[in-house]
Design brief:
This protein is mostly helical. It is about 70% helix and about 5% strand. Strand 3 and strand 4 form a beta hairpin.
Amino acid sequence: MLGYVVKRFGSMLVMLAGLSVMVFLLFSVLPADPARLTCGKTCTPDVVEANRQRLGLDKPLVEQYAVWAKGIVAGRTFNEGQGAAEFTCPAPCLGYSFSQQENVTDLITEAVPVTIWLAAGAFVLWMTFGLTTGVIAALNRGRWPDVVLQGISLVAYSLPSFFVGLMLLILLIVQMSLLPYPDYYPPSEDLKKFLVTMVLPWVTVAFTSAAFYTRLTRTQMVETMGEDYIRTARAKGLAERTVTVKHALRAGLTPIVTAAGLDLGILLGGAIITEQIFNLPGMGRLAVESVVDSDLPVITGITLVAATFIIVANFVVDMLYMVIDPRVRLA
């Protein structure tokens, strides 16, 4: 078991190192001048050249990466030895946004909690409804509950998130005035307003995902319910609930956990559409604003963080495999 954990953890570190190289190269070999994209669209040639020197973009590519990677681990000092006022970016330093006059790490740190709350709430909703309705559909295979749930999930899965979000916004807020217009409040500041603000974004994100997990859970349950060990468990006189949950559902969880981990990792990278619709100051909205402003340091930082979430989520999924299927520990 320990060997499996060490092996997977080592693989994750290698992937993170490779990720840093890929992200750095991706934005270093752009057709446009990277220095031109460090402070938005209003930069003058003098400012662009100053930023080129401040960020070390006038140095060889290998040296640029070494300085950038070292900043992530140990921090970085800008304007060092250039006769201008020095300023420090503590680790993990993802760069400096001259457009917003802030460290990229600080900008992302402010946005990440919003996206985490959005992802966590939506994840609980879609897994709860998806697993429950999927099991119900499988246990009633071919009967009307199965047909109804499959029909609803098919329609729900075909609706794009921007349509669902806009419909909820127009109907429940604009037309019926059941909820106030979204204005984000941290839960530590006002828990009631936080819940009121987040309920519609949670439903928007979870709506399509719950439909997908309904169909996925049903498929896995139908396959496992026909296995020999399920018939053996019933022949031993085990309760139907035990057979369904402990044996059938657990055996079919592996692909569900895989999909859930990756979906959660992607969502943590920023639910761009939902955050824009409901005015949430999360990673998605920060990404859109950075692209519009051509703020390359922020775009690079967000890309690195979003990809890191996916790699870490994949590692967590591997660890969960050991709980679901003990045979994985021998791999």
